[in-house]
Every structure is written in C-alpha cells, then in structure tokens.
Design a protein that fits this description.
The complex is a heterodimer of chains A (160) and B (180). Chain A is α/β, with parallel strands linked by helices and 160 residues long. Chain A has a single domain, classed as Beta Polymerase, domain 2 (2-Layer Sandwich). Chain A is 19% helix and 29% strand. Chain A is built from three helices and seven strands. Chain A starts with a helix and ends in a 37-residue tail after the last strand. The relative contact order of chain A is 0.14. Chain B has 180 residues and is an alpha/beta fold. Chain B has one domain: Rossmann fold (3-Layer(aba) Sandwich), CATH 3.40.50. Chain B has seven helices and four strands. In chain B, strand 3, helix 5 and strand 4 form a beta-alpha-beta unit. In chain B, helix 2 packs antiparallel against helix 6. Chain B is globular and about 65 Å long. The chains are: A alpha/beta (160), B alpha/beta (180).
C-alpha cells in the first residue's frame, strides 16, 4: 500500500478523495471529477509521489442509473517504481470530464480512445476526434447497450 | 482447320483466345494484401519451400496497376474495406480475387461490429481459401483453380471473350426473366 502517497493525497484534498481501496497490492483512489487535474498535477509534482508516466487511461460502463461511466487513470512513477490507479465517476447526464493533457501530454491519445469507445468528452483535449471507428460513426461500441454485431448500415461499405 | 495439312509438324493452330489465356494463366502477377496473420502464410507461398514460381506467379507486385490477382490475406475491417476496394479498382482488367482465410471469407472468429463478415459484400470473389490461417499449399491450390478459370476465360471483373460475354448476358437475361 502506498501509505505516504495516500496520506498526502488525503491531507491535500480532504473533500476530493472519496474512497481508497486496495486489492492484491494495487491501490485505487476514487476522486471527484472536478479535482481531477489538481490531483494529477499534485501526484506528478510531489516529491514523495513523482508519477511522471501516465501509462493508460480507459473508460468503463457500469450501466447503472447513477454514475454510469468511470474514467480510470493508471499512473506509474519511473524514479520511485510505484503505481496508483485513479477513478473518476462520469454521470450519463453530463458526459464531460476535464482533460489531463496539460499534466501529461501523452494523455491525448488514450483520452481519444476513451472518447471513441465509451463516448466521454474530455474538455481541454485539443484533438477530440475518433480513433478506431470511422469519423461519421455515431455510436460508442464499448457501451453496454451497444449490440455486439453493431447497428446495421451504420458504417458504409464500398458499392459492389 | 486445313492448315495442318499444308504445314505438317512445323506449326500448330489454335484460337487466339485460348493462346492468350494460356499465356495469362502461366504469368499471374499477384497483388499481395497481407492485412493480418494470413500474410505470413502468403509470404511462405512465394518463398522457395512452396514456391509459387512453379506456377508462374512469383512476381509479387506492390502496385495494383501492374497486377491481375488480388490476394486479400487477413481480417478486413469496415475501415479497411474502402482501401481494399480502392486497390481493386486500380487493377487493370481482367482481374481475379482470392479471399484467403476464414476472416476474409466470412469474418471468421471476429463476429463483431468492426469486421466485415466476408469481403464478398463489396468485392467479386473468385476463390475462397479455408483455414485459419490456410497452409501455403492451400493457397497454391487456389492459384491452380484461378489458372483453370483463366484458361476457361472466366473472370468476375470483365468478360474476357466474346463467347463468355455472350454466355454471361444470356445468364443475366435468364435471371431477369427476359429470355429472348
């Protein structure tokens, strides 16, 4: 358990940290969506944290009436060799989430991927285009209500 | 023809169509489209162990404008379909298409929203090769079938001979029920 990191986070953001979980040596911290960028900047710059590498960002769909979506940040510190996972709830009524591209420029593409698959819009990301799916595609394939075989005729094929 | 009588054993006669077809079938120039793991087997097909040169198809062209056999070797996604079709359209007539492997022929194990469930949805396919991935000898067999088709003057792209064209038109008319 990253005791020092979690304690520092809690003292720095008393209302921002919602929940801390540990499972098989992996620490997960639930944070408030509004404090997203501040928490990430703190984790990057603090001497005891130094999370300089944002290894992945992904989205999850729990398909619940409240707090349906989650954005998950997997962070790694190259100098201190420790990892932490941050989670942010995104409700279906407001699909916006602050972008962390200002903290780690490399977050741009993982955020695009999350937008493409789950449909969460990252405010502040300058390049919110689709990543895998065609530009004119209107659905988000990793949502639970998306059928596995897709929606017929939603992607055009060349004429035979 | 009475010409053999005059010429004896010094010459043989044939129709120009079958002579051209015979030349064509022994110099098929494939356009490789190795878009996933089938591409590895397609490379083995061209290498000395399996050696497509035995059938005159060793000249892999990486330009569609110089080739007449399109080997689609791999999973074709909806996004890639446009590219595959564009390459096919750039090839000069007459041309043939081999759908290599389960993914290309039917979507294979990718029963999902992003993969085209068979390239025959947007391309006229001549031969389907089964396997995941197919062995190179399997692809050689496909090439032999293509050669037979070429000798018979069959092409899904454009009718090669006047006779084939006439036959295809007849068939079309019969399908449409305007038989005359």
């Amino acid at each position: 358990m990253l005791t020092t990191v979690v304690e520092k986070l809690k003292s720095q953001f008393p209302s921002g940290v919602l929940e801390v979980k540990e499972f098989r040596g992996e620490t997960t911290v639930h944070i408030k969506k509004e404090d997203n960028v501040a928490v990430c900047t703190f984790l990057r710059d603090d001497e005891a944290c130094r999370f300089d590498y944002c290894s992945d960002i992904c989205g999850a769909d729990a398909y619940t009436p409240e707090n349906r979506f989650e954005v998950i940040y997997n962070l790694y510190s190259i100098p201190l060799n420790h990892r932490i996972r941050l989670k942010v709830f995104v409700d279906e009524s407001d699909l916006h989430c602050p972008s962390v591209t200002g903290v780690w420029p490399g977050a741009e593409w993982p955020e695009r991927e999350t937008y493409d698959m789950v449909g969460i819009v990252f405010d502040g990301n300058k390049d919110m285009r689709r990543m895998y799916m065609p530009e004119e595609f209107q659905y988000f394939p990793l949502r639970k209500d998306f059928p596995m075989m897709g929606i017929p005729n939603s992607i055009s094929l060349p004429r035979k | 023809m009475g010409l053999e009588h005059v010429l004896g054993d010094t010459a043989m006669t044939t129709t120009i169509d079958s002579a051209i077809n015979w030349c064509r079938k022994n110099s098929v120039w494939p356009m490789p489209l190795g878009i996933s793991c089938c591409g590895i087997e397609m490379m083995a097909f061209a290498m000395p162990r399996f050696d497509s040169a035995r059938f005159g198809a060793e000249v892999f062209r990486f330009s569609p404008r110089q080739s007449d056999l399109l080997i689609v070797a791999g999973t074709t996604t909806y996004k890639m379909a446009t590219v595959v079709r564009k390459i096919y359209d750039q090839m000069p007539d007459p041309k043939w298409v081999v759908a290599m492997g389960a993914c290309t022929s039917s979507g294979g194990m990718y029963r999902t929203y992003s993969v085209v469930q068979g390239i025959d949805q947007f391309l006229p396919v001549d031969v389907y090769v089964a396997g995941c991935p197919p062995r190179p000898d399997n692809l050689l067999h496909a090439l032999m079938i293509i050669q037979e088709k070429i000798q018979r003057g069959e092409s899904r792209s454009t009718p090669m001979t006047v006779a084939a064209e006439r036959a295809e038109k007849q068939q079309l008319l019969q399908i449409q029920g305007i038989n005359n």
